[in-house]
Amino acid sequence: MSTVYKFLGTQVALSSANNVGGSGLVRVINNNSAVGVLTVAYANGTTYANTTLAAYETIIVEKGKTDTLAGTNLLATPVAYRN
């Protein structure tokens, strides 16, 4: 069975810290031919995680509603899903 995603808002660039509409689940895509680094931080700006996305890779990130995402050449969309 495939996963169904419901888009909860518009896509945003992650060129600066963004809580992506306060969503707890976020679809992140690297829309570039180079690798991109996604940084996850608390609302106060303290980084608690990061990961590298391959060229054109897409992932789903679970985060706190006030936590922020940032990364060069990365786009994010708030989502919900069901299996």
What portion of residues is helical?
Answer: under 10%
- Proportion of β residues? over 45%
Tell me the radius of gyration.
12 Å
Ranges where pLDDT stays below 50 over 5 or more residues in a row are none
Principal-axes geometry comes out as globular
Overall number of structural domains: 1
Total strand segments: 8
What is the H/E order? Answer: EEEEEEEE
Q: Overall mean pLDDT score? A: 95
Which sheet architecture does the biggest sheet show?
5 strands, antiparallel
Number of helices: 0
Spatial gap, N to C terminus = 7 Å
Structural class, judged by helices and strands? mainly beta
Observed structural traits:
single chain; 83 residues; mainly beta; five-stranded antiparallel β-sheet; three-stranded antiparallel β-sheet; 8 strands
Structural commentary:
The chain has one domain (4-82). 0% of the residues lie in helices and 51% in strands. It contains no helices and eight strands. The strands form two sheets. Strands 1, 2, 3, 6 and 8 form a five-stranded antiparallel β-sheet that branches. Strands 5-4-7 form a three-stranded antiparallel β-sheet, with no helix packed on it. The radius of gyration is 12 Å and the shape is globular.
List the helices and strands and how they pair.
Layout: E1 4-7, E2 12-13, E3 25-30, E4 36-41, E5 47-53, E6 58-62, E7 68-70, E8 74-82
Antiparallel strand pairs: 1-8, 2-8, 3-6, 3-8, 4-5, 4-7
In short:
With 83 residues, the protein is mainly β.
